[in-house]
Write a structure and sequence with these properties.
Number of domains: 2
Distance between the termini: 56 Å
Radius of gyration: 25 Å
CATH topology of the largest domain: Rossmann fold
CATH class of the largest domain: Alpha Beta
Strand content: 15-25%
Oligomer: single chain
Largest sheet: 6 strands, parallel
């Protein structure tokens, strides 16, 4: 027997849903949010949050989704009346958790390439207040080829400029009709960059100065930091999950339990967009930097310090690492003893985030391949781990041994045998692996390792690596004892093997 498709009529029909499935309220709430991007992440993050707020009677609004590129999901979303299921799975407090809920916070989806008039019509809605986006990291970029007459402009900032200018014109520049931008793109200072691109577009199009003043004074471009792993449609489990749910959902969206959103704003918006009142892990702040540092150094830093050493030891995924007592202890102690002491948020916040990080690493529903994490590891170590190394030494006068060990393991990982198909390859237990990085970085490491023949060469090799300011942004041989520390670990790895060497620091 074929199962019915998820729709508003299915909910209204009294269909019997599983007892543990939460169904958000279905109603004709006003469209208070315009969202550029209809993909898996935003639907399992922002739209899910809006649904949670609505379920508690706190926000009472819905989102209209805008397809940001010519090919997208608008038709599929509209075919299900904007409804979809979010499946959250992970570990919370050491216990496996699985939650499913039907999200009803999406009113409809628009394709501005086929309905540009309808797209601009959203700007005429007096209830519109928040504009969300996730147009990939490359989406927030000024385009000199956008024209005011384009329907629509190709770039996201061009579309947003057209929309905001239409709103400005329609409401005669009313001060209470400005919008709050909540960009979720994974770039530094996303709101500042978006605002700069919109202002540049306005000047390119020679829009009136009063519009520019309205943009500056009555609209807010927040900077945000988003954090949730969304794996999307669970293709391999779709049949099993569909049978369990009792309906067909072409938009089923799987994600981890963990979620975190930092929003930096000049304005006090917490009561207007009551995310925290709905019990969501959201922080409103005038300065997001401490939270960014927390995420980059604990979560991303732990990933980076783990990946290459663990791969050399024979592991292939983060989950395998968390099941290994040695590697698990190595990572957890590095976080608590060497990374957390370099951060300035309250201790309880840091400990809570660290615990969640370890649980996320151990989530059996998320498969993180170490070689994927290893991509461009040199720049990742520089951005994610090196600040902890330098700050730890500044605060304690000593060097963090595990973070230094991770650098030694990285240098060993980059020991290539030559290029194949344009990529440097290394050997692990006789099997080749790809060392994916920028070509100059690959060529540098290949040349460095050609000068190595015995453990006595470890320190000269490490000094040459650390002295390369193009890799690290500075000459790291100037950091007292760093070269000696890293060289000692590198020699131990080559002489004893990665496992025995790790035991000396874990």
């Amino acid at each position: 027997m074929s199962l019915p498709k998820l729709s508003r009529s299915l909910i209204a029909s009294g269909h019997r849903f599983p007892a543990d499935l939460a169904v958000h309220p279905v109603s004709g709430l006003p469209e208070r949010v315009l969202q550029f991007g209809e993909g898996n992440f935003l639907r399992a993050f922002v739209d899910w949050m809006i649904g949670r707020m609505n379920a508690r009677g706190l926000f009472n609004g819905r989102a209209v989704l805008v397809q940001p590129i010519p090919r997208g999901m608008a038709n599929t979303i509209n075919a299900q009346d904007g409804l979809y299921t979010v499946l959250l799975r992970g570990i919370r407090g050491g216990t496996p958790v699985e939650e499913a809920e039907i999200v009803t916070s999406v009113s409809r989806a628009l394709d501005p390439y086929t309905d540009f008039v309808g797209f601009l019509g959203c700007a005429e809605n007096p209830d519109l207040r928040f504009i969300v986006s996730n147009t990939t990291e490359a989406g927030i970029a000024f385009s000199a080829t956008d024209r005011r007459t384009d329907e629509p402009p190709a770039s996201f900032p061009g579309k947003l400029t057209a929309l905001l200018h239409h709103r400005f014109t329609h409401f005669h520049g009313a001060s209470d009709k400005g919008c709050v931008m909540l960009p979720c793109e994974l770039i530094e200072r996303n709101g500042d960059n978006l605002k700069a691109a919109v202002l540049k577009t306005a000047r390119l199009w020679k829009l009136e100065e009063s519009f520019v003043v309205w943009l500056e004074c009555h609209n807010e471009f927040t900077n945000t930091l988003v954090d949730r792993i969304v794996t999307g449609y669970p293709k391999e489990e779709a049949g099993q999950l569909t049978a369990k749910l009792g309906y067909q959902d072409d938009l089923l969206d799987a994600a981890e339990i963990f979620h975190f959103w930092v929003i930096e704003s000049r304005w006090d918006l917490a009561s207007e967009f009551p995310l925290t009142q709905a019990g969501l892990d959201v922080v409103w702040t005038p300065n997001m930097t401490p939270y960014r540092d927390r995420k980059v150094r604990i979560l991303n830093g732990a990933h980076t310090m783990l990946a290459l050493a663990a791969y050399l030891s024979g592991k292939n995924t983060v989950g395998e690492c968390m099941a290994d007592d040695l590697i698990h202890g190595y990572v957890e102690r590095a976080i608590h003893e060497e990374i957390i002491p370099t951060l300035d948020l309250p201790k309880e916040d840091l400990l809570s985030f660290a615990a969640a990080t370890i649980e996320r690493f151990a989530n059996p529903h998320i498969t993180h391949y170490l070689l994927s994490i290893a991509l461009n590891s040199t720049s990742k170590y520089r951005a994610r781990v090196l600040p902890s190394v330098l700050e730890y030494r500044k605060r304690t006068g000593a060097l963090p041994r595990r973070l230094c060990f991770a650098l030694a393991a990285q240098i060993v990982f980059y020991r290539g045998t030559g290029f194949k198909d344009g990529v440097l390859v290394g050997l692990r237990n006789g099997e080749e692996y790809r060392i994916a990085d920028d070509k100059p970085v690959q060529e540098f490491y290949l040349d460095v390792w050609q000068g190595y023949s015995s453990p006595t060469d470890a320190e000269p090799l490490v000094r040459r690596v650390l002295a390369n300011a193009s890799l690290w942004g500075k000459d790291l041989t100037a950091v007292p004892n760093l070269a000696e520390e890293v060289a000692g670990h590198l020699a131990a790895i080559l002489e004893k093997g990665i496992g025995p060497a790790m035991r000396t620091v874990a």
